[in-house]
Every structure is written in C-alpha cells, then in structure tokens.
Write a structure and sequence with these properties.
about 475 residues; 11-stranded mixed beta sheet; binds glutamine; alpha/beta; globular; 11 strands
Length: about 475
C-alpha cells in the first residue's frame, strides 16, 4: 500500500487496519513524514504545519504498536491527528501563532490531546493559525500565512486554517482546532472538509489557550462526517480540570449514521438567506435542502430575529474577554521578554512587539468596552443581546425544529489580502458566531463548489444534541454523494 493510500483511509478504517495487524502505527508515522515533505505542508509550501517532531511520533507509534500486540488498541489506533498551535501538547511547542510565545513548550497537555492519545492517536503536527485565534484567514500568524490546498492563491480560512489545510491536503483524517466564533466551521468550508463545534461544555477546554472563555471550544475537523464524529466522541466528556465541562453522558456520535433524514424537521432561518446572498450559493443550499426533502425530511422556514446583532455583540464580548485573558502575556510568565527601562517599560516593549496588529486591536477594544463608563453602554448591553440570541434558538428548537440549516459562510475562500479592512474580515463570521454566543453545537460540511471552490452548509442543533446534528449531517452527506464536491 502506498503512503497516500494508507493516509487516504477514514479514521475508523485506518484504526481497524492497525488494530487488525494489516498496517502498523510505525507505517503511519513514516507515511505522514513522507507526505508532509513531499507535498510541502511546512513553511516552504502550504505553511499548514508549524511544528513537528518525527522522533517523538516514532516513539509514540512504537507504543501504540505494542498495545496492538497486547490486544488493547484504542478506537484511534495509529490514526494521525494534527493539533492547532493554541492547544497544549507536551511534545512540540505551543505558540498560538504568536511571537510572544516563541519557543514556549507547555509543561502539561490539553485534555482533548490526552484523550486522543489514550485512544491510540498519533499527534503528528502543530498547525498554523491566526495569532491567538483572532482572524478568519490564517494570514496573520507569526509564521506567515497558510495556503488553501484547493487553490494555494487563496486563504484556507481561519483561524484554524492550518488544521483545515492539513486535513484537505490528506496528511490526517482528523485535526483539532478551536472555535470562538467559527474558526473551525469557516476554514472547513473553505477547504472542503467537515468542521464540528461541540456544545459549550461538551469538551474540556483544559489546555486550550484562552481567547474568550465563555465562547471558546475545542473543535474537530474531519475529512468526512464519520471522521469528525469519531474525533468528537473521543474528546468529549466531563473533565475535573475544567469546571465548565458538563457532566452529561456522551452518546456514540458515530451511531447517528444509522439514523435517517426521514422524520427530521429542518429549520431554515430566513435571516441567514438575505437578499444580498450570492444567488449561486443560495442555489447550492437549495440543492442540499431538496436532497434532504427527497430523503424524507420536513423543511420549515423559521426566524431568528436577533441575528442582525450577532457581529457587533460578538466583537464586544470576545475582545472584552480576550483583553483580560491576554493580560498574562506580560514578559514575566511566558515566552518573550524585551528588556525596558523599568518594569512598566518592559511590559510595554514586550506586549507591543510580541503581539501583532489584530491582537493589539482586540486588547484595546476589549479594555475600552470594559472600562468604567463604557461597561454599561457596551459590555452589559452586549450580554443582554447575547441572551436574546440564545433565546431565539431555544424557541425554535422548543417549537419542534430538530436542526437548522444555513450556509456556513457568505462566500468561498478569498484571495490573500482581499479583506484588508478588519470589519470586512469580521463579516466572514456572520453565519457562525451565533452558535458560539448561544453555546449550541454546530457543524459545516461540503455541499458543492462555486467556481471550483468548496462551499459549506451548516447544521445547528439544541444544546448537547450533537447526535441529532450528526444524524442530519450523515444523512445529507449520503443524499448528496459526490455532488457535495461538485
Ligand atoms: N474569526 C473570529 C474572530 O476573529 C472567530 C475566531 C475564532 O473562532 N477563534 O474572532
């Protein structure tokens, strides 16, 4: 079997092959290193991978192969997984795509990573990202921009663009990213993969470097719905290290593949299909909805009236929390320190040179909206609107809608430098941020192409109802078949 053939398998098939002794984790480790170099996933090419450690992966692979021989291989035995650079790993640095964390190696591992490893996965790469996960294009990383494997002249989306590109380029069937406002769903859409943001609290945030703690989630890329469901299943569940992780049972999300679209009520929120939406994108959504109808789903138009306020609400709350979370990067505790004339000057030198422009903009904005006098005018008001947005979703799900279906993004992947105005960039999150504000699960999957570029469709479901979301996603994937990539 050639390297690309082994790595082209879905995660479950690959694990079965390793568990059954028909391939070894060592083979996988070797193939991953080969493909990474051959297809130039590092700095000289797609710039998706920013750290790797082949010796550490080889050692982990040997340990997995020993477990296989003992008959105790996990559900991800030998499956290679890439991890966004803001999720702590013991091997390889964790730098959040920032100069301020240059060379930083975490002394502990994220729970999601530990669970992947316990399931037999090989953590083969840390991936490029917009600095501190702030962005929608992976253009703004200390390592330089990542490229979209479908069209290297375009962005892979962001902020988890490196993970999306690693999956799309065939390096790994599963990758971890993080979501605060769409950073996995949007790049999954741009690169033609599947991206899942679980319910807030479903997956432990322990070891995920905090951006906006009330919105952040560890999220999962898969090449297919099955890969994404398996990855999500493995990392989910209560963790004593994260007080916000929920103590609720974790269903086997892959079992949702046995469910059908028949009997599902799919809500179509009219606010996500504005008149300004590209009619060709709308047509691809209609094609997906027709496929669901043909498979027995009921499609119903609904309204989420507070959607119009999502972007301003998000861009008050997220920077507010970020300004507080990022205060720890002060030149004393972590990474970079630039000497100055006294303590205050050291802080200023370190932070003004260590952070890039977007991070600085968010810290300033966040500090402003939290300051005395503006707190009530902006921050408190944003919290009130957030509650209205969450209530919109509660109402439609209580009214009998099982899942909502929308476009993931207003356009496919854009060329480098196309969105130079930060506000323009913020608008690429218009369909994704509400799920984070409401805390509900959401995912993107391919529904077709526009001018050869992948387009994503999004499902959203009620809190902790990932199973219904996956049921719809498996159903749509089956119903569209190869059309999803045309
Ligand atoms: N693009 C959004 C932002 O810049 C979302 C980022 C994210 O989900 N991490 O904040």
């Amino acid at each position: 079997m050639s390297a690309t053939e082994l790595l082209a398998l879905g995660a479950a098939d690959l694990a079965a092959r390793v568990a059954g002794g028909r391939a070894t984790a060592a083979d996988v480790a070797r193939d991953v290193a080969m493909l990474r170099e051959r297809d130039r996933l590092g700095r000289d090419g797609l710039n998706a991978v920013v750290h790797h450690d082949d010796a550490a992966v080889a050692a982990d692979a040997a340990a997995v192969d020993a477990l296989v021989r003992d008959g105790t291989a996990g559900p991800l035995a030998g499956v290679p997984v890439a991890v966004k650079d803001n999720i702590a790993t013991l091997a390889m640095p964790t730098t959040c795509g920032s100069r301020i964390l240059e060379g930083y190696v975490s002394p502990y591992e994220a729970t999601a990573v530990a669970r992947l490893r316990a399931a037999g996965a090989l953590i083969v790469a840390k991936t490029n990202m917009d600095e501190f996960a702030m962005g929608s294009s992976t253009e703004f990383s200390a390592y330089g921009p990542a490229r979209n494997p479908v069209d290297p002249g375009r962005v892979p989306g962001g902020s988890s663009g490196g993970s999306a590109a690693a999956v799309a380029a065939g390096l790994v069937p599963i990758a971890l990213g993080s979501e605060t406002g769409g950073s996995v769903r949007q790049p999954a859409a741009f690169c033609g993969g599947v991206g899942v943001k679980p319910t807030y609290g479903r997956v432990s945030r322990y070891g995920l470097v905090a951006f906006a703690s009330s919105l952040d989630a560890v999220a999962v890329f898969g090449r297919t719905v099955d890969d994404a469901a398996l990855g999500t299943e493995v990392i989910s569940g209560r963790d004593p290290h994260d007080a916000t992780s929920a103590d609720v049972p974790v269903p086997r999300f892959r079992d949702a593949a046995d469910g059908a679209l028949a009997g599902l009520v799919v809500g179509v929120p009219r606010e996500f299909f504005p008149d300004s939406l590209d009619p060709r994108l709308r047509a691809l959504c209609d094609r997906a909805l027709d496929a669901m109808r043909d498979a027995g789903a009921t499609v119903r138009e609904v309204s989420l009236p507070h959607t119009a306020y999502a972007i301003p609400t998000y861009y008050i709350i997220a920077p507010a929390e970020a300004s507080s979370n990022l205060a720890r990067f002060d030149g004393v505790r972590y990474g970079l320190r630039l000497e100055g004339d006294g303590l205050r000057d050291m802080y200023e030198q370190t932070r003004s040179r260590g952070f890039g422009a977007e991070v600085t903009r968010r810290v300033l904005l966040g500090t402003y909206v939290l300051s005395a006098g503006y707190y009530d005018a902006y921050y408190r008001k944003a919290l009130d609107v957030r509650a209205c947005i969450a209530a919109d979703y509660r109402r439609v799900f209580a009214d009998g809608v099982d899942v909502l279906f929308t476009p993931t993004t207003p356009s496919p992947a854009f060329p480098f430098g196309a969105k130079s105005d930060p506000y323009e960039m913020y608008l690429s999150d218009i369909f994704t941020v509400t799920a984070n504000l409401a805390g509900i699960p959401a995912m993107s999957q391919p529904i077709g192409r526009l001018d050869g570029l992948p387009v994503g469709g999004q499902f959203l479901a009620a809190h902790f109802d990932e199973s219904t979301m996956f049921r719809a996603a498996f159903g749509l994937e089956r119903a569209l078949g190869p059309e999803a990539h045309r």
